[in-house]
């Protein structure tokens, strides 16, 4: 039987893994910050702008011109 030893990782793959880990950690911090900011908000969103768009009056109908 042959002994199978894992090949040592190349420096490129270890640096890629490190970079991916850093990005994941940064993304987790960002998500955590967003959930904390929204926790104190009112309802669905803590937007400072309310009622920017009014209700739609009616459904628009498009008709082809004849003639």
TrEMBL record:
A family per Pfam: DUF5302
UniProt feature, compositional bias: Basic and acidic residues: 17-33
Spans annotated as Disordered: 1-67
Protein name per the record: DUF5302 domain-containing protein
Species assigned in the record: Planomonospora venezuelensis
């Amino acid at each position: 039987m042959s002994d199978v030893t894992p090949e040592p990782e190349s420096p490129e793959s270890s640096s890629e893994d490190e970079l991916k880990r850093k990005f994941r950690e940064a993304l987790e911090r960002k998500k955590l910050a967003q959930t904390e900011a929204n926790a104190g908000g009112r309802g669905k969103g803590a937007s400072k702008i309310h009622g920017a768009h009014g209700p739609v009056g009616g459904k628009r109908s498009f008709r082809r011109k004849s003639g």
